[in-house]
Design brief:
The protein has 3 helices and 6 strands; from the N terminus they run ααββαββββ. Strands 2-1-6-5-4-3 form a 6-stranded mixed beta sheet.
Length: 135
């Protein structure tokens, strides 16, 4: 029983770390690493366009590379992991995005589906949304 509890804690921590590493690599502009956090057929939507999914790791990489350069800081909070089984988890988190462009910070959320792969935990889906859309 303790082994199962320990394995669950390790899986939860790995999913939390995935969210945090994603934000850090995003802020660093390391698009290869950002795209590498997805499974090959993973999909994502940005908080500013929650219903517009970008599908496939290659398309995700191209979308990030197409963005104009900017300085950002993502602050992740309230990361909650729900293990569905030993290799699948739902993850929710809130995000506070600061940009150097003088825009007000954005507050958003992510709803993620993560799966365990040979390379570790990866996003199968990341769906962003804004909690307080700009008016």
């Amino acid at each position: 029983m303790e082994t199962d509890a320990f394995a669950a804690l390790c899986a939860e921590r790995a999913c939390e770390r995935l969210v945090l590493d994603y934000a850090a690599c995003n802020d660093a502009g390391d698009w290869d690493a950002v795209a590498g956090f997805y499974v090959a057929d993973g999909r994502m939507s940005r908080p500013t366009a929650p219903d517009l999914f970008i599908e496939g790791r290659d398309a995700i990489l191209a979308a990030f590379r197409a963005r104009p350069p900017r300085t950002t800081r993502h602050v992740c909070a309230n990361i909650r992991v729900t293990l569905l089984d030993a290799a699948t988890a739902r993850v929710s988190s809130q995000i506070l995005l600061f940009t150097a462009a003088g825009q007000p910070p954005l507050v958003g959320s992510y709803a993620d589906l993560c799966i365990k792969t040979d390379a570790g935990w990866r996003f199968a889906e990341r769906r962003g949304s804004l909690d307080f859309p700009p008016s």
